[in-house]
Amino acid sequence: MSTDEAVEAAPLTPVPARPRRGPRILSRLAGRAPAPPPRGTILHNAGVATAVMLTLAAAGSLIHEPILIPPLAATAAIVYGVPQLPLAQPRSVIAGHMLCAAVGFAVLAVLGSSSWAAALAAGIGLAVMTAARTAHSPAAATSVVIVLHSPHPATFVPLLAGSATLLVLGGMASSYARRGAPRYPVYWW
């Protein structure tokens, strides 16, 4: 029997369709998001972060500097949501905000207040934080806030330093208030 005859004599079986590769490849490349923490942890962290942010908003309103809320809200999300990340550690939170404040005031003094200067300040702030090993992405927003709103340094800088410190202390207290919670900070400096 020739090969052609064998092929003709073989029963025809359908070839299984190939599965679509798109979603499987994407899931392999991107991985899967971790499971959410327990509901109690979510409520605890959100409650502490909200209480700290309300305290900061009250302090900012008293001295007429409420513009710190956006970068500090992002800091709170990192400190209370993912406390093990290097971005959440006290060195990065406090030094990152202070370095970016210095960059913001320097850019403001040299270039004035404009969206172009604010974008430049964010980029320079990121470079300075990276070089100083104090990467904290919300701090780049601090330099933007400074350039766009031109706050008075005598009130803004102490409020920023105190607020960043309060967020760190709140994160530390929060981690010790819940049994079994990951300890914060992982390292100080």
Give a structural overview:
The mean pLDDT is 83. This protein has one domain. It has helices at residues 3-9, 22-30, 39-62, 69-81, 90-111, 115-131, 137-149, 153-177. Helix 3 runs antiparallel to helix 8, helix 4 (69-81) packs parallel to helix 8 and helix 5 (90-111) runs antiparallel to helix 6. It contains 8 helices and no strands. The chain is mainly α and 189 residues long.
Average pLDDT level: 83
The arrangement of helices and strands along the chain is HHHHHHHH
What's the total count of β strands? 0
Report helical residue fraction: 55-70%
Strand content: under 5%
- Rg from C-alpha positions? 26 Å
The termini sit apart by 80 Å
Question: Which stretches are poorly predicted, pLDDT < 50 over at least 5 residues?
Answer: none
Quickly count the domains.
1
Can you tell me the overall shape? Answer: globular
* Biggest β-sheet description: none
Query: How many H/I helical runs?
Result: 8
Tell me the structural class.
mainly alpha
